[in-house]
Design a protein that fits this description.
alpha+beta
């Protein structure tokens, strides 16, 4: 259905841009196959008005003109819809190249390559390689989760979704009804921010914990979409990046290198164990559970209790 609507919008835009005089609704209906297939005049009128509003929301300037006979016509003048020249510096081109690499692991690889070719034709400097590395280390953004593409499309089209989600503390996944807002990659993992309809609140979901297929649902969003969706800040807070207190843990020697990178102090205990002091914030218990038997929480007591509860939940599953 999304592909059919996109094709219909494209055909309407081409008709409005390609005419030198205003076209009436009747003429537009006769020119676009999807409109000819509309069951009734009322159905066509509703479809046309929605499409016209969608094109205007996308930025197309559509003029409404009334002729001497009182008939209303529509057109989109090219001079009113012409984009300014595209100029990109090396850093902007590198950002586009990195974005294109994300799509290389999804079905949009061809579209991404075609878009970069068009940018090159529009004036992208020949000495700038959007795909090339710009330093000794080449940045990469992994896209391994099957949920990435359907969620990306749902964010773009503002479509509610349903999926099975397994929390770190749960033995089994449970259905979540979500209005998706934005996707963001943080520390090698993709996260979705959106409105959880069942809980009536904003939530962030890690894509690797989504099981099964992501299914789209009809209807509009029930909650307003924020102007700025702070996915990274939310996840960073959960991971203790903004923590204002510390936790003391024991860690096996030669294990848990991400924890060692965060540690503010490390002390060797002997017998294959080290003692680390690390920042303590919301979500640290879920992160520590991922290291299994290599981590033992010493203090605070509430963190130790939370980790034990999570491990028991995993053991029951």
């Amino acid at each position: 259905m999304a592909i059919a609507k996109a094709e219909r919008l494209m055909n309407l835009a081409l008709c409005l841009l390609g005419t030198r005089r205003p076209l009436s609704k009747r003429e537009l209906r006769e020119s676009i196959e999807a409109y000819l297939e509309a069951g009734s005049d009322d159905s066509f009128n509703r479809m046309f008005e929605r499409d016209k509003d969608d094109l205007r929301e996308l930025g197309l300037v559509i003029e409404t003109v009334e002729n001497l006979d009182g008939e209303v016509g529509y057109l989109a003048r090219r001079d009113s819809n012409r984009l300014p020249p595209i100029t990109l510096d090396a850093e902007e081109a590198a950002a586009l190249g990195l974005a294109a690499k994300v799509w290389q692991q999804a079905r949009l690889a061809g579209a991404a390559s075609g878009a970069l070719q068009k940018l090159r034709a529009a004036g992208l400097p020949e000495d700038v390689d959007p795909y090339g590395a710009h330093g000794a280390l080449e940045p990469r953004i992994p896209v391994h989760e099957a949920a990435f593409e359907p969620l990306m499309l749902a964010c773009r089209d503002r479509r509610p979704v349903v999926f099975e989600y397994r929390k770190a503390t749960a033995a089994r996944p449970e259905p979540r009804h979500v209005e998706p807002w934005a996707l963001e990659c943080w520390r090698g993992h993709w996260y979705l921010a959106g409105w959880d309809r069942d809980r009536g609140a904003e939530r962030v979901f890690r894509l690797s914990r989504i099981t099964g297929k992501v299914r789209s649902r009809s209807g509009r969003f029930t909650a307003p979409v924020p102007d700025v969706v702070t996915v990274r800040e939310t996840v960073a807070s959960w991971a203790g990046e903004s923590a204002d207190r510390s936790a003391l843990i024991r860690l096996r020697t030669d294990a848990g290198y991400p924890l060692r990178a965060k540690a503010t102090a490390v002390r060797e205990l002997g017998d294959g164990w080290d003692e680390l002091e690390i920042p303590y914030g919301h979500g640290l218990d879920a992160w520590l559970v991922e290291f299994g038997p290599d981590v033992v929480v010493v203090e605070p007591a509430e963190l130790r209790a939370d980790v034990v509860d999570r491990l028991r939940a995993v053991a029951k599953g």
